[in-house]
Every structure is written in C-alpha cells, then in structure tokens.
Write a structure and sequence with these properties.
heterodimer; A: alpha/beta; Amidase signature (AS) enzymes; eleven-stranded mixed sheet; B: mainly alpha; 2 strands
C-alpha cells in the first residue's frame, strides 16, 4: 500500500469512509510526522496531539456505530491562526493576542468539525495576515519545504508549507490580496480565494472586511473543491455572506473543458521571470490541446490595483485593528493615563509591518485626505471591477501567473514597496470580488515550484476547479518536496 | 514626492493611538512617503462620473435587525482579559476625581 502521506485528501476521506483505514491510524501518521519534522519549517504555532487523536477516535466510533460520516471525516487539517478555534490559542501571529483563547469558533471551523475533519493545529502566518513572505510573524519565520533558505510566501505561509510538506492533508488560509494563492504557488500546492461572500467571515479575525475571504489550501483541485463544498454557504452571522446556491464543486472536476474560453492578458507577462512565462505558455498550449479557445483580453485598470489596494486594505485595517488596545484581550502595557496605555500597548504589541499599515490607513482616512485617497481609490476599484465584467463577456476564465517569480530567499526583499509588488497578479481579484485559484504550473530551472492563477466570474468556482483539474491531468502535479518525501 | 513630514507622522500616530519614537517617526516618514509616491499614480486616472465601490457586490451594506441577544460568553470573555473586575473589564481611570 502506498504511504498514507501520499493519499490525497479526497482519497484519504474515501479510505476512512470505506473502512480501509481508521481515522486514528491516518491521524497518528500525521501526528508523528509533525512531531518528527514540524520544527524544521516553523509552520505550526499550536498543536494538540491528544485532542487530534481523540477527534479521530470519535470518527471511528461514529463509523462503528453505523452513523453516516461527513465529507471530510478523519482528514487531518490545519487552520491559519486568524481563524478562531476552541481549545487552542488564536494569535494572528501577533504579540498583541499572545495567549488569546477565543470562547467561540469561526463558522468555517464549525463546518469542518461537522464534516468530521480532524483539526490538528494552528498554522503560522504573517502578523494579522499582512505580508507576502511570512517574515512578519511575531513567532518566527516559516521555511519553504522546497528550499529552507526561501520564503514560503504569505500571508498563509504556514498553511501552504504544512500542506506541501505533507504535515497536513489540507489547510484553511485567508486571502485579502493573495494570501492563499501566492504561498500556494511558492510551495507547489493548490489554493482558492472564493468569491467575496461565498464563505462566511464569522470568527475570522478581520483585516480588510471588504476583501477578506477564507479559502482552502490543498494538494489538488479536487481536494480544494471538496473543502470548498464544506465551508461555502450562507451564515446569518455574516450579513455579507451570500445566499447564492452552493454548487457541487467536486463533480465539476472531471467535466470536459473543450469549448471553454480562456482569456490571456499578454501585457501581464512582461517583466515576469522567463521560467514563469515558459510555464504559462505550456499551460496555454495544454488548454488549446484540450479544446479550449484562447483569447486575448484586456484589464486596463489592473495596473492600478497595487495603489488601490494599499489605500483600501490599510484603511479598513486601521479601523478593524483599533479594537486591539489592551483592554479586552491580550497583554496590556500600563502607562500614566488611558491614552498612553493604548499607545504603548499597541507600540509593543504590533510589529513594524502592522504599524506601517495602520499608519498608512489612518493617514488615508484622516481629515483632508479622505477624498483624495480613500474615495479616489474606491472609484478606481469600480473601474477594476468593470474591467472584469467586460472581460468575462469574452472568456470563462482568465489565466495569469500567480507571482512574477518563484519563491525568493528569506531576507531578500527588504523594502516594503518591493514586497507589495510581489502581489501584482493576486491583488485585482479581491478588489473586484471575483474568485481566483492558484495551482502548480511546473518547476523553475532551480527546481522551485511555479504557480498559475485562474480567475472566473463571481460564483463560478466550479469553472475554476474544473479547468484546474483538467490542467493537472495534462501538465501534472508536483511531487512532494525532495526532503519531505514519505 | 509625497512631502510627508515628521509632523505628519506624529499627527497620524496620535490618531492611530500608536506610540512613536523618534527613530520610528523617521522610518515611517521615509517608508510611507515612498508608498504614497507610488499611490500618487492614481491622480492621473479619470474617475469623473464613477461611483465608488465600498463592497464588491452590495450597493449598500446589508443590515440586520438591531436586537440585543445574550451571548452566554461573559465569563469566558472576561477570562481572556488582561484585567477583569467582577462582571466587567477593569480599565484605567478615565475621569479625574472619584
């Protein structure tokens, strides 16, 4: 029998349901792997082996009692540390939430539990999801399992690294400007940012409320589809969650893609690493072979996405993060009066990147600058949204690189603006609210993973997993990173 | 150039309730200045007659009924607070006198 770690999430869930393996044995194999190899990557912030094994035994007892098992029964999964879960701390990788234990669970966590998933631990991230390298975590960097000198991407770096290294079968991350897609590309796995409103944000620590979405990180498109089916849907506790029907995403995997129209933005490839461009060209050829029509599309305002994002996201963050003041949770740094106590607590509790974004957002919202920055950016956001509406009259999916390069080295990108530019391909989709998926597109000459991005019209997640699954069949998935082979 | 000054940095830090050392203030001025210079490219975009997008799909924020409900979580919430006193959060004195 193949190693348990080489089963995909879909296969493992089927094996548990069919009684071929017990949930306990499957979970035990992951627990042992985390204990043996987890520290090398720094991917976990919290891990409870006994609780994980007890969750697994509960699945086995349910099966023995003849109960119907959920879609993810017995599957060991990890959670980005901005998703509230009972039993373990939720810190957002920030000192300002050190030791915080939420008294309730995120909607997505409840959904995973109802589906029988084994929640094995909390995963490292950039502090408050602000970063593209996982280097802004207050609890240490995460290392890329393909090359430990390199960044795993961010902000869901722990989720992507743990999935790629086979420390979990899949994970949930969150995406505000590319935070599941770019780390998935850097680590050679698949991830999706669903349509804004597809997944409830209840119990997700807010960064930028008009952009944030929770998304799966897994090894395959089918696995991403399986997790999305579980977490998607209306939740009364998040009034922005959508009432649009949840589709059967797993069944979309395997449907033919002949006749689908694939849009390519040719100008976007200028300035990308040649290996990235070559991998995109291979994917385009594979889609043509599968019977897709490849058409050129334009997103003329996408070039403004970086400027728009770095007004809107920090503005929303400056408001959302005002609640962290040392009064209700986290440590308090006392000073002579209340204002000083707030200011000192926040200076000590937030790291430099979070402080920079709070300052930027506060500036953009302050008297005299609000119209010039926030309103102007919100109007250009409308133009970006219209570009997508126009493009999706001509095509079903848009294909771009996920990132202009493969994973960069830890410490290599020091300038904040240069780091922000890493996300040029992933920023437009959340601004427009459309869904987007990143999947492996091959390896660079240095044998580092490369990623491609597929974007679709709102609530067309089924088309994304359908095209991604078909592409996997033609260009192949990546193997486990060499030092993490089972 | 954005023309962001040290005084701007201190003013914004006060609004954001962030203590700012002199070293922080210089770094913020330089780093925020560079980002604001990049953002200035938006000045050239014609947005006349364009409505702003505050939310990707809803034309206005969805509302729910303003009904108070008991969470049943008071003790658990207070247990996570840096200082609690009986049924509430203990905070530094705000007003002078007793």
């Amino acid at each position: 029998m193949q190693s348990l770690q080489e089963l995909t999430l879909h296969e493992a869930a089927a094996a548990v349901r069919g009684g071929d393996i017990s949930a306990e044995r499957l979970t035990q194999s992951y627990v042992e792997r985390i204990e043996k190899r987890g520290r090398e990557l720094g991917a976990f912030l919290a891990f409870d082996r006994d609780d994980a094994l007890e969750q697994a035994r509960a699945v086995d007892r349910a099966r023995a009692a003849g109960k119907q098992l959920g879609a993810l029964a017995g599957v060991p999964m990890g959670l980005k540390d901005n998703l509230c879960m009972r039993g373990l701390p939720t810190t957002c990788a920030s000192k300002i939430l050190e030791g915080y234990r939420p008294p309730y669970e995120a909607h997505v966590v409840e959904r995973l539990r109802e589906a029988g998933a084994v929640l094995i631990g909390k995963l490292n991230m950039d502090e408050f999801a602000m970063g593209s390298s996982n280097e802004t975590s207050a609890y240490g960097v995460v290392r890329n399992p393909w090359d430990r000198e390199r960044a795993p991407g961010g902000s869901s770096g722990g989720s992507a690294a743990a999935t790629a290294a086979r420390l979990v079968l899949g994970a949930l991350g969150s995406d505000t400007g590319g935070s599941v897609r770019q780390p998935a590309a850097f680590c050679g796995v698949t991830a999706m940012k669903p349509t804004y409103g597809r997944v409830s944000r209840y119990g997700v620590v807010a960064f930028a409320s008009s952009l944030d979405q929770v998304g799966p990180i897994t090894r395959t498109a089918r696995d991403t589809a399986a997790v999305l089916s579980v977490i998607a849907g209306r939740d009364e506790r998040d009034p922005t969650s959508s009432t649009q029907p949840v589709l059967d995403y797993a069944s979309a995997c395997g449907e033919p893609i002949g006749g689908l129209r694939v849009g390519v933005v040719r100008e976007a490839l200028e300035g990308c690493d040649p290996d990235v461009v070559a991998s995109i060209e291979r994917a385009i050829a594979a889609l043509r072979d599968a019977g897709c029509d490849v058409v050129d599309v334009q997103l003329p305002n996408a070039k403004h996405a970086l400027a728009v994002y770095y007004i809107i996201a920090p503005a929303e963050a400056s408001s959302n993060l005002a609640r962290f003041d040392g009064m209700r949770y986290g440590p308090r740094v006392s000073a002579s009066d209340l204002r000083e106590t707030y200011a000192r607590t926040r200076r000590e509790g937030f790291g430099p990147e979070v402080r920079r974004r709070i300052m930027l957002g506060t500036y953009a919202l302050s008297a005299g600058y609000y119209d010039a920055f926030y309103i102007k950016a919100s109007k250009v956001r409308t133009l970006i949204r219209r570009d997508y509406e126009q493009a999706f009259t001509r095509c079903d999916v848009i294909l771009t690189p996920t990132s202009p390069t493969a994973a960069f080295k830890l410490g290599e990108v020091k300038d904040p603006l240069a780091m922000y530019k890493q996300d040029i391909f992933t920023l437009p989709a959340p601004l427009a609210g459309v869904p987007a998926l990143s999947m492996p597109s091959g390896l660079s000459r240095e044998r580092l993973p490369l990623g491609l991005q597929l974007e679709a019209a709102p609530f067309k997640e089924d088309v994304l997993v359908r095209v991604a699954h078909a592409l996997e069949q033609r260009i192949g998935l990546l193997p486990a990173p060499a030092s993490f082979e089972s | 150039m954005s023309g962001l000054t040290l005084e701007d940095a201190y003013r914004v830090a006060k609004l954001a309730a962030l203590e700012l050392s002199e070293q922080d203030a210089h770094a913020m001025r330089d780093q925020l200045g560079a980002i604001l210079d990049h953002i200035a490219a938006l000045d050239a975009v014609d947005v006349s007659g364009v409505e702003p997008t505050f939310h990707p799909f809803a034309s206005q924020a969805p509302l729910r009924a303003d009904v108070a409900k008991l969470s049943g979580l008071r003790d658990a919430l207070l247990a996570g607070a840096p200082h609690a006193d009986g049924p509430g959060f203990a905070v530094p004195k705000v007003l002078d006198g007793d």
